[in-house]
Amino acid sequence: MDADCLTDDPVRRDTVEVDVTVLCDAVAVFPEPIAEALPGWSPEQQAWTESEAPGNVAPDGGWLLHFHSYLVTSDRHAVLVDTGIGPAGGEAALWLGTTGRLPRLLESAGVGPAEIDTVVLTHVHLDHAGWNTDGDHPRFANAEYVVQQAELAHAQDSATYRNLIEPIAAAGQLRAVEGRTAVAGLTLLPTPGHTPGHQSVLTDRAVLAGDVLVHPAQARWPELVYVYERKPAVATTSRRDLLRLAAETGLPIAAAHPQTALSGQATGVAGTACAGGLLRL
């Protein structure tokens, strides 16, 4: 097990009882052929996806991406895990040719922006931080935004950092953490590889895994590398660690881009949120 991954008793959970609501910010076709995005993609993996995870297959056989955020609520906290692709005109929306709908989904879930007290960013990529801000100000004015220090250091020269993190820091709402950390009754787990400071969120309902698994086939073939992983070998270790955690605890893995949550046995365990936008895990 990599020293930066799930160390010191990964089964132990410093969590409280929560509800987890899936918020499907958008759906879009990945703009590159799947065999380029996932080098080594095989006919067997394509056939498996068409059979077992057809919601991730575009009409032309390409890769259909779902962009999920997660609302985690307890009797004390309202936590948002990732903030999606953002509004029309934003960098992610322009890249994907679609527009996020997270504010409407939160309203449908009965939660206003001011009620969110914690925003956890799994990592600082534009399709996970798109609704961080409202212009030059934090969209969630009462929230602490929590990011791994290693991720901030990695991302600090990027446009995403300048546009979507610096306004948070300027408002005094950015919290950097290091390693496994308890936040708002949840447990943050370092799961590096996709980015150096990628983190996942352990709840009593699910493991919210960000981009540890970008495609459902990676639950069956964890060695399947995504071309944009910064450290593929480390990312593979993180995938194996989370799959083992899911198998040991019985918790589903709810990642950002697969249509459904996944089990440690690589089978779908929940319906899609993307038809109506909301789904309770």
TrEMBL record:
The Metallo-beta-lactamase domain, residue ranges: 66-257
Classification of source organism: Bacteria, Bacillati, Actinomycetota, Actinomycetes, Propionibacteriales
Family the entry assigns: Belongs to the metallo-beta-lactamase superfamily.
Name the record gives this protein: Beta-lactamase domain protein
GO molecular function, one term: hydrolase activity
Key words of the record: Hydrolase, Metal-binding, Zinc
UniProt cross-references to InterPro entries, sorted A to Z: MBL_superfamily_lactonases, Metallo-B-lactamas, RibonucZ/Hydroxyglut_hydro
PANTHER family: QUORUM-QUENCHING LACTONASE YTNP-RELATED, QUORUM-QUENCHING LACTONASE YTNP-RELATED-RELATED
One Pfam match: Lactamase_B
Native source organism of the sequence: Kribbella flavida (strain DSM 17836 / JCM 10339 / NBRC 14399)
Listed Gene3D superfamilies: Ribonuclease Z/Hydroxyacylglutathione hydrolase-like (3.60.15.10)
